[in-house]
Amino acid sequence: MLSVDRVDVAIDSKRILEDVSLHVADGEIVAILGPSGSGKSTLLRAIAGLVDLADGDVRWDGQTIVGTPPHRRYFGLMFQGYALFPHMTVAGNVGFGLRMGRADDIDRRVSEALSWVGLDGFGPRQIDSLSGGEQQRVALARTLAPEPRLVMLDEPLGALDRNLRQQLVTDTRAVLEDREVTAIVVTHDREEAVALSDRLALMRGGTIVQTGRLEEILETPADDWVENFIS
Amino acid sequence: MRHTRQLTALIVALAIAVAGCGDGEPEQTGTPETLTILAHDSFADAVNDETFATFMEETGIAVEVLGGGDAGSMVNQAVLTKDNPLADVLFGIDDTFLSRAIEEEIFVVHESSLIDVVPESLREPENRVTPIDYGDVCFNYDKEYFADSGLDVPADLDELTADRYAGLITVEHPATSSPGLAFMLATIEQFGEDGWLDWWGEMKQSGINVVSDWETAYYTDFTRYGGESPIVMSYASSPPAEVIFAEEPLDEAPTGVIEAGCYRQTEYAGVLSGTDYTKSAGELVDFMLSVEFQERIPETWFVFPANQEAELPQTFVEHTIIPDDPADLAPELIAENRDAWIDEWIAVMEG
Amino acid sequence: MRRLRWGWVAVAAIPMVFIGYFFVYPLVRILGLGLSELSIGASGVEERLFRVGWFTVWQAVVSTILTFLAAAPLTWAVSTFQFRGRRVAMALATVPFVMPTIVVGAAFVALGFDESVVAILAAHVFFNVAVVVRTVSTLWSRIDPRILDAGRVLGASNWQVFRTLTLPLLRPALAAAASIVFLFTFTSFGVVLILGGFQYATLEVEIYRQAVDLFDLPLAATLAVVQLVGVSGALYWYSRYQERTAVAWTLERGTNLRRPRGRAKWGVATAVIGSLGLLAIPLGVLVGRSLSASFYRDLFSDDRVIGTPIASVGNSLLFAIIAMVLATSIGVLAATVITERSGSLSRWFDLTLMLPLGTSAVTIGFGFMVALDWPVDLRGSYWLVPIAHALVAIPFVVRSTVPTLRSVPAETREAAAVLGASPFRVWREVDLPLITRAGLIGAGFAFVISLGEFGATSFIARPNTATIPTMIFRLLGQPGASSLGMAMALSVVLAALTAGVVLTIDRARFGELGSF
């Protein structure tokens, strides 16, 4: 269970996150929904340990992880632009986390992860020979393969065309549910957020303005902005 | 932080590896294991296993030779490191640099037991340095050119200003070349401080060719190597070298030495004042004055032995001359005026 | 990032200690000795100083511009097209870079260049063409062709595409090549002495003259400081310029060379044959003078110096390998430090690493002798030779790897970290493989710099470890037809060796591409 508690983040003395709190229960998928520039990606980076907190606490199962470097948090983060390693094959990318964790049976687990995302047999392919949709799937498989205790997806479908997106929303949701992962999905698209998650967290100007299921938020919006944004 | 520890280990290993390559501090005892000679490259380069073998056998001391670049940079290194010297003995300092070294007090007085075999004219009066060899900087001429053209080989410097030699002479620049400087000094001694610049002025009129270094003068401008000057400033030992380093064996040297305008450079060895082994270092200097070592000198370094008892090899007897009365200025005079003379020379030649 | 500090310090420590102990410390010691008594104010000194300083600056600027113009056709051909002999052409163009100045100087004199500014400029171009060709083509050949196609589709002519897209994208490489050529020519020594006579002294020549011939250490130190200030100024401008113009753009994995067709074929042929032909003329003089089987045979048997002349090849190769390993590992670590942190500390570090390129060999050589007797006496050690070579080569490794490191998006590293890679593993798994290519280019430069270095080597090489250039110098120092012939033959060996090594490195680079 992840607890983000009154977190402040400043980059170059500019405040990006202010007093952000968020809780994600085991097995729950939460979507962070907000316009661009609202601090969604920074929140993921703060949870992953890629930016320092100015204030507040991030806990996993009640234990603070603030001093833990990113590589010891055992979280997964799928970057917006995928950040695939250009000098490795598909299998090299997907197996990277497993190699870092000195896992056994890496080859088998890599092909397994590829089959989750429907890319059986893609292991030896070069990254730059893949289409956009295939890259998205490789990035997802890479994030999931080490079976992290928390999966974070940053605009997982952002760069893809519409038809592909509809297809992949369904696929991604299925993969996340099959794996029973705890996940945070960041998106600016309401449909996507609803389709991918159990619960929404609305973000604006570096802070979370409301959390809850879609129906709850529609019923009792926190303010006018929420009402406009969500409907 | 495992990798931090690995890196630390790496740094430590590196430091130890580097430290292991140093020679460590010498023990402060009477006899060293090794004596080091700091010499200019042209000496150091030709040292081989045999050069100091006898000295090693007799004393049990190994001799190591460090090349210090050209003569000037070698002397500078000795001066700059006088508090913690690089070597025990310095070899190869000549008149042009001697005053500076003596002024800096880098030598201890050492009166060699063999000093009597050295002509008075070569010695340093206070024995701070010991003469080991001398070399004469002289005009060389291309025998074939003179035979073909029917021109006479000039006999003195005044003759060189004649029209028939116009455009046929190459010398080196006194500011950038050791033979160039030596020849400038030779003209100062011959014509005096009042007259030498007039001679150079006339030479400039007749188109004397000035190049920056000996290599260019000899291998590019000399007619023997395809250039346009049958007369170049070189060394008295160059003709024997032409025979020894010929492409095909030669009976006669293809070049000759002009006796006029020669300048004698004496090379000295001295015990460096920072050494812990003054006595052994002195013995090494003495060895360099011994007949055995001295007879090696001509064919190894192409200079002449200071020890008069040493015999010259046949190639030197046959193919060169030792000028009777070469120019030779006092080190103090050179040190005092060199810069000004060069400036005056430049004013005449390049102004 | 507080938690990275110890690892970072450890990585930063190696290049900093190296450059600090082997460059900054000797430099400070030797300048300190000289500057204790300043000698500005002596009559006539300023006038000559001004003349020398002015000549140093303008000839360096003009040489740099001319080198770029001369290198342009060949750079264009090898960066745009794939053709038979492309790699051989690049290897041959590198040969002049390592030729001893004394040999090239003699060749230029033999070609009828009299002592003049023209001769100096021509020789500078001859030596430095390779720097421009190699530095610029690395980047140029990897520009995404789609960017250029986009320009064409938008109606730009070939020339407009070049001027408005290619050239601006090449700016980092152009600036890097310009800074290196400028430094090399700013501190030119042998060329200026041999081809300039005494009228055209650079600061480097004047420092040598004052220190070595005239024993005016204070004046020499003052001049060395003037030179350092000039070099630092140029470098500071360069690093600011780099930062201002750095554009993050993803480099292509492979090169984007196409086969020349139609008119381009003739263009490539003219550019390659013309450029190599011009470079070959001075080299032809050497080959011509070396042509006699006996000269080559004597290289193996002549015993006038310790060992045989050919033994210098072994020494040179050994030193070059050590220098290459040193320069590459330290340069790559330094590049990591420079790109990891932005801000003034890393800028000054970067600048300090470049300084050895602009510091006179006399200053470095004397500095070593004055300073390196502590904590262990390294002054007579063989290691000083490859260390001195590495000092000069590190900037090449840094310059060729920093742009690539900067072009690696931060997210790629972060992705690895989130997947469980420690900072060290991130470096090893992401940065290192991505900069291998660039690092190899730097390594190649390090190798040939070591093969060709003469100035500092002549100060510190021991007689029985002569390198090829010092051996050539020795042979040329003695009269006799076989001395000259062997010196020329050894120069040809050096040229062949350089071409061979460069070709091998280039090939290794292409072989390694497959794993990208």
Molecular structure report:
The complex is a heterotrimer of chains A (about 230), B (about 350) and C (about 525). With about 230 residues, chain A is of the alpha/beta class. Chain A is about 35% helix and about 25% strand. The model of chain A has no long low-confidence stretch (mean pLDDT about 90). Chain B has about 350 residues and is α/β, with parallel strands linked by helices. Chain C is an all-alpha fold. Chains in contact: A-C, B-C. The interface of A and C includes residues 52, 73, 76, 84 and 86 of A.
What attributes does this structure have?
A: 231 residues, alpha/beta, 6-stranded mixed beta sheet, 10 strands, 35% helix, 26% strand, C: mainly alpha, 0% strand
Summarize the structure.
The complex is a heterotrimer of chains A (231), B (351) and C (516). Chain B is α/β, with parallel strands linked by helices and 351 residues long. In chain B, 44% of the residues lie in helices and 19% in strands.
> Major sheet of chain C, described briefly?
none
Tell me the number of strands of chain C.
0
Topology order of chain A in helix (H) and strand (E) letters: EEEHEEEHHHEHEHEEHH
The percent of residues in helical segments of chain C reads: over 70%
What does the oligomeric state look like here?
heterotrimer
* Percent in strands of chain C: under 5%
Helix content of chain A: 25-40%
Structural class from helices and strands of chain A?
A: alpha/beta
The strand order across the widest sheet of chain A is 6-7-8-3-9-10
Biggest sheet architecture of chain A: 6 strands, mixed
Radius of gyration of chain A: 17 Å
Identify the biggest protein-protein contact and residues per side: B-C, 74 and 71 residues
Look at the structure and give the mean pLDDT of chain A: 90
Anisotropy-based shape of chain C: globular
Parts with pLDDT < 50 across at least 5 consecutive residues of chain A: none
- Count every helix of chain C, treating DSSP H or I runs of 4 or more residues as helices: 21
Structural class of chain C: mainly alpha
H/E order of the elements of chain C? HHHHHHHHHHHHHHHHHHHHH
Percent strand of chain A: 25-35%
